[in-house]
Amino acid sequence: MALMIEHRNIGHNWQFSYKQVKLLQQYYNSNKILVNCLNSDCNISNKVGQRIEHNLLLPISKLETENNKDIF
Q: Is the model more confident about 50 or about 11?
């Protein structure tokens, strides 16, 4: 377990609050919906689809520092 924590940054006891767990669940569910949309025959342009894929799991702080402010 110590090797996983040291080299893969997993296995930590994060001790999230109830509110943090709910926000993580909301984040996960939102991303799952986007992935399902991208994998289906939805009506979005290739450019929008590529932008969603590029930004899908980036934190908000990273999105704000890139040239993506127009999506907020």
A: 50
Task: State pTM to two decimals.
Answer: 0.58
Asked whether the predicted pLDDT for residue 32 surpasses 60, the reply is: yes
Contact 58, 51 (CB under 8 A): no
pLDDT higher at 26 or 37: 26
First to last CA, the chain: 40
Count of Cβ atoms closer than 10 Å to residue 55 Cβ: 14
Q: Which residues contact 52 (CB under 8 A, 6 or more apart)?
A: 34, 38, 44
Q: Tell me how far apart the alpha carbons of residues 8 and 4 are, in angstroms, rounded to a whole number.
A: 5
CA distances from 60 to 4, 39, 53 (A): 27, 23, 15
